[in-house]
Structure formats: C-alpha cells, structure tokens
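Input structure tokens:
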C-alpha cells in the first residue's frame, strides 16, 4: 500500500477577520496484489490506484472555515487502464482550528456524474449515485512537521447494465496516518 499527496491554500481577499480562501489537494493512493499462477485468470499483478483532486472555495472567519468543495476521482482497477471510474463530485467543506496546533476538517461530496470504463467493452455505464466523506485531524509538531490522521469513505454505484451489474460498484473505507511536511 502506498500513498502520497500535496496541497495548498491561499487567502486572496481579507476584510478584518474574514478571508476568502481557495485551495486544492492532490492525493495518490494505491496497492498491488500478486495473482498466483494456480488461479485460472491471467497471472500478474492486480492493482488499484486512486487519484483525488480536491478543490475548494471557502470563507474563513478566525478559526472556522466553510465553503464549496469539488472532488474529482480517477479510480483504476486491474492492470493499468483495464477498469476505471472517472467521476466528479460537489459538496461542502468545513474546517475548525483550536489554537495554533490542531485542525479538524470534514468534507462531503455527492457524485452526480461519472462513467465506468471497461477495456474492450463498447458501453460506458453511468455512475448512478456516489458519496464521499472525509474527516481529518492534524496536529502541528514543529514549524515544518505535523501529524495527521484521516478517515475516508467512498461509495459509487454503477448503472446496472451488462456487462457491469453491481460487480463494479466501488466501496472503499480508508484509515490513514502520517507526517505532513510544510513548506
């Protein structure tokens, strides 16, 4: 299992304690699983990669931020390009900070559009419904380093037409922890 990400936010307008903030996060996660030769499928490595591009536009008043959240996902399963779900979602983002060291963030997005891409299949069924919830807690250790824990839950249901049925529905829950380096 691997994962890495980058993010940035910038306050562009300020009126006293009220600031207009724009930001983006890019997260790449994945895993690989070797399929043994005795399995009657193509042998090799089955892998899944998940690329998230999150963008937000928000207002920050002192220690509270709230705004509109846009999430773009590209989920690939199998060998590269075999099965994929590119989808776009829109929702809300909220963040609160306690003092200078602790930040909690929650985001929710609905996926009104997306498609299932299956290599060799002429059909591209729609994503009929989808949701994403992410919660994170960040604690600043030093000026440059922070510790972060996060939970993410994603569900995407695919239009039930052959050859997809519900086999390709995507359900994923992640609990992650790591260090954040600030530049």
């Amino acid at each position: 299992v691997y994962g890495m990400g980058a993010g940035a936010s910038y306050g562009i307008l300020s009126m006293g304690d009220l600031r207009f903030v724009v930001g983006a996060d890019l997260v790449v996660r994945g895993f690989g699983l070797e399929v043994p030769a005795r399995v009657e499928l193509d042998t090799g490595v089955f892998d899944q990669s998940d690329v998230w591009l999150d963008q937000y536009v928000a207002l920050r008043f002192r220690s509270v931020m709230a705004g509109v959240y846009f999430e773009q996902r590209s989920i690939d399963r199998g060998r590269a390009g075999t099965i994929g779900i590119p989808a776009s979602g829109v929702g809300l983002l909220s963040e609160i900070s306690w003092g200078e060291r602790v930040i909690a963030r929650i985001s929710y997005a609905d996926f009104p559009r997306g498609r299932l891409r299956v290599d060799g299949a002429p059909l591209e069924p729609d994503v009929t419904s989808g949701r994403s919830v992410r919660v994170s807690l960040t604690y600043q250790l030093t000026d440059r380093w922070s510790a972060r824990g996060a939970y993410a839950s994603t569900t995407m249901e695919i239009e039930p037409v052959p050859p997809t049925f519900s086999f390709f529905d995507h359900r994923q829950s992640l609990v992650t922890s790591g260090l954040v380096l600030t530049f």
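Residues 2-34+42-181 form a domain with the Porin fold (CATH 2.40.160). The radius of gyration is 19 Å.
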